[in-house]
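Entry type: protein chain
Record version: 2
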Amino acid sequence: MSDALLLLRSEWTKFRSVPGWWRGIAVAALMIALFPAVGLGGAPPDQTSQVPTGPDGTPVNDAYYLVHRALTGDGSITVAVTALTSERASPWAKAGLIITAGPELGARYAAVMITGAHGVRMQHDYLSDHAGPPGAGCAGCG
């Protein structure tokens, strides 16, 4: 008998010999079969969340983390990004300044940021992305 068949046979024997594994498989199969039948498979279509749309009506991915400060009247905003250096950071990880027209999903916005591997960028209204000059950025970024 080949090594692969011996390994398969030994794994099958181990699976059959542990009673808890059979019960777990039975419970999982029962849950898969019963959840849609009893209505536990999700919310009805009228209660699902709407996909946010941008200013031009196209669907957008509107998710970011920020520190919010209201600015009334005239003022100035300064942002200093001193480093964006995480080995686990995505090449498109961003840090910088974003100004939005409001808190609702899909609101118009303009952002200037440094990215993990794509330099300085200016983005606005979900459709426009402009690269800064080559080599632009901060010391220690990207």
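Comment: The longest strand covers residues 94-100.
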